[in-house]
Amino acid sequence: MRAVNIRSGNGDDAYFDRLFSYFQSQFQGGIRKFGPIRGDVFLIKTKKQNYILKGYSNHRKLKLQEAFTATLRKEGFKKTYRFLESPSKEELYFEGTHYGCLEYLSANKSAFSFHTHSNRQEGLDLIEQFHDTTKSFEKRYRTLLPKGDILAKWTERYHLFLNNLPVLRYFIKEPFVSEMVSWAYWSLSGMEQQQTFYHNEADVILHGDVAHHNFLRDKTGKLHIIDFDLINIGPPIFDYLQYANRILPFIDWSYDNLLTYTQMKKYKREPAFLYALAYPADIFREWNRIIREKSYSDETKLKQVIELSIGQFSDRKNFVEQLKDLLE
Question: What is the mean pLDDT of residues 196-224?
């Protein structure tokens, strides 16, 4: 049975009717359910097996993902999905999109989130296991993956945010905007001064997007890490900084609380780490996205990003001041 209310940014109902017909021709055992998860990711249930189908813009990206997950498993890291051969044993290709056939992992009733200390630590432990595995084969992927450069990435995001200020000021007033800009400027200046530290750690393959939705707890309780679209090569601190930015709102923007996590303790007094923690990566990312997509007319999205920017403003400001005191 086909799932109802199928929608995506890729097209209208006619597109999905064609897509569904194509998948029917490839899954000859009969599709019992077909529905979107997000974007070009779909769930297909057949009588024999369930699959996740994920679309890629070109053949190379698909093959890179297949090779990477296969290497992970070969090197002993099993806490993720496998790519499977399609039932038709042919490559799945539809209207410019290449589809990979992924193992379906049944989700636990208790979804992973950053709301509990145990979950947050478990996520960090899994990232560390992922790094420990990928450092053994990152040399084989150096010609295939980009080199991570968090300073360049965040500098670009900062300048884009500055360019978006004329629009953004319709939604956020002073002194909030100037404070955010000042945090970013101070952070980037310090990171530039301390950037040699980012070259001292041995390179690993970084996940690149350690948001809560890229962790999946299966029905047995085992935690998996998924979605490797943004993998790149660099020092582990880059993933840990992104993770810290994600969990700080859940630990009261407290540096002491952050240091209760095993993987963060080794950076306790490291200036490169302290400066980077002050960068408002989440605020800049979400505002730049809303303005790029012109989705500021979406009241739900707008409310969320305003809450992110203003609702936590005082706590975040105190956190930045604490970082400055530690660096004096």
Answer: 96
